[in-house]
Amino acid sequence: MEKFSNLKELAKNLRTKLGEKGIILLYAYNGVGKTRLSMEFKDLGKIGDERDTLYFNAFTEDLFSWDNDLDEDSTRVLKMNLRSSFFSGASDYALEDKIRKFWTRFSDIDFQIDYEEGAISFSRALPPKEIGGTEGATVDNIKISRGEETIFIWCFFLTIVQLVLDKDEGYSWVKYIYIDDPISSLDDNNAVAVAVLLAEILKEGTQKVVISTHHALFYNALWNVFKGKSKNRCCLHFKKDGENSYIVSGTNDTPRFLHVAMLEELWRRAESGELYTYHFAMLRNVLERAASFHGHEKFDECFKNEEIQEESPLYSRIINIFSHGKYSLYEPKEMMEDNKKLFKQILSAFIKNYKFNPDLFPSREA
């Protein structure tokens, strides 16, 4: 386990680790600072106009925005912010065919890029039976879903990554690739598909890569697809330690450690009393996964026992209330003392029902 006083120091450490490793997988809960860490990493490589990191994060997605044609409500296009160097020289590479190589794995929607206007339009060819026998008809100016948009931007980025791996002269400046949470708005199937595709692209590459995520399934999929590169891979769990410091620990033994790490974190919070409403959402996540694994239809089966038989309906209601709606991870509010007590009772009941290593959950009352 390593401690860092700020994200910049952690970013420097990641660069040092990449001197020995080719791929770093980094798991962290939402709200810890993954995106800020990716920007610190990127900024360390900026000297004047020079840079060394090609990155994908929330800022990359913001380079694309919709023009929904509010006046005519007909010509809807995804706009590219051409002021960004991300798109510099894109028209010279005929990116459409390269993007389609990835995009067709996820969608049958076609697209066209207008580089001069910085606009991407989407269309779908319809089978004759859907349009009264007309041959070759299409539905134009499609507004694709949020999930499809995420996938498309991801495929756009992968196309540029491929140029880097192919040693294209236009991207010779790229020394590091940093990918932060590329699977927002995606279902589990697509999350796994993205992990497999990423592994295929990076399989033979010599590029130094950091991939960070809060999505346990995506992390587990990456852990498995890169298993054959274990000597060249570094797997880490990243979390806050107080207000401004951070702890990074290895997770090389098994990706399932993430669920234990989450339980450890919740227990530590419960023992310290430093509990926020979003911790109920984290607890629900653990309970739902345990319920699914053990074949239960409802997560409350995981904390029911003879000692709390009467209280279990209350526990279920509390979890439902605090893991939805306004009690958001992005608007953290400290729990009231009564709710902290209920939280610890639920967590204790769950840990008692399942045979976790008791050394992981030391009590201050012991």
List keywords for this structure.
globular; 366 residues; 16% strand; single chain; seven-stranded mixed beta sheet; alpha/beta; five-stranded antiparallel beta sheet; 38% helix
Describe how the helices and strands are arranged.
Blueprint lengths: L1 E3 L2 H11 L5 E5 L6 H11 L8 E4 L1 H4 L2 E4 L9 E4 L14 H9 L6 E5 L4 E7 L12 E2 L6 H20 L10 E5 L7 H15 L5 E6 L2 H10 L7 E9 L3 E6 L6 H16 L5 H16 L18 H11 L14 H17 L13
Parallel strand pairs: 2-10, 2-11, 3-9, 9-10
Antiparallel strand pairs: 1-12, 4-5, 5-7, 6-7, 7-8, 11-12
Helix pairs in contact: 1-2, 4-5, 6-7, 8-9, 8-11, 9-10
Question: Overview of this structure, please?
Answer:
A hairpin with a 4-residue loop joins strand 6 (110-114) and strand 7. The protein contains eleven helices and twelve strands. Helix content is 38%, strand content 16%. It is α/β, with parallel strands linked by helices and 366 residues long. The strands form two sheets. It has a seven-stranded mixed beta sheet, with helices on both faces. The radius of gyration is 23 Å and the shape is globular. Residues 326-331 have low confidence and may be disordered. Helix 1 (7-17) packs across helix 2 (34-44), helix 4 (95-103) crosses helix 5 and helix 6 runs parallel beside helix 7.
The amount of helix comes to 25-40%
Radius of gyration: 23 Å
- Give me the count of strands: 12
N to C succession of SSEs:
EHEHEHEEHEEEHEHEHEEHHHH
The helix-and-strand class reads: alpha/beta
How much β-strand is present in the residues? Answer: 15-25%
Query: Mind describing the biggest β-sheet?
Result: 7 strands, mixed
- As residue ranges, the low-confidence spans are 326-331
- Principal-axes geometry comes out as globular
